[in-house]
Amino acid sequence: MMLWNFKKKTYPDYWEAYLHHFEKKEKKTLDSSRFVAFDCETTGFDFFIDRILSIGAVSISKNEIAVADSFEIYLKQSHFNPDSVPIHGILQHDMLPKLSEEEAIKQFLNYIEDAVLIAHHASFDIQMINAALNRMGLPNLKNKVIDTMNLYANTRIKSNFIDKRAHYSLDHIAEAYAINLMDRHTAPGDALIAAIIFLKTTALLKKSKSFKLERYFLKPNMF
Known about the structure:
This protein is of the alpha/beta class.
């Protein structure tokens, strides 16, 4: 008779500490939740081949950006794509202090905890983080996620003259809201722009009595 070994898979302490934050079952609201706007600069757009170069993030609490509670790291480049350098400006052998992929992801998990994650075209950034986690033998992120493009699209006047499926770029929205683009295409700069867009769009959307934050959470199957 064959006996099957159903031993539970064990995860590193930092992943268990991350999961611990999700044990509380508090409802996510604009006033009570911690949000983290973040951005990844990468070597390209292939989730299997390309790698994260840097992660920038800033937290939002009680409708205010907590600049002092920010996050910025650079990763060692195991994969280098010179074609992407003109966009993000990160060189393979520059003098910036860089972390291994595992250490960078560990620090990111420790920073975000159970915050609602905010990003522009968020599915890309989430999938890049998830790809790194999977390479480390870990599951996907557990956080709720909101895409600032969806928020902005829902502030637009609904008419036949506006394409409700339009993919508004970060530059387009920043221009519409007169947001400074000086640090565009840096992870911290794009994270800050996304945070400002989040505050401006939610300020408009919550004027509606039917506003519900959970309506804007992305579905897990999008990652």
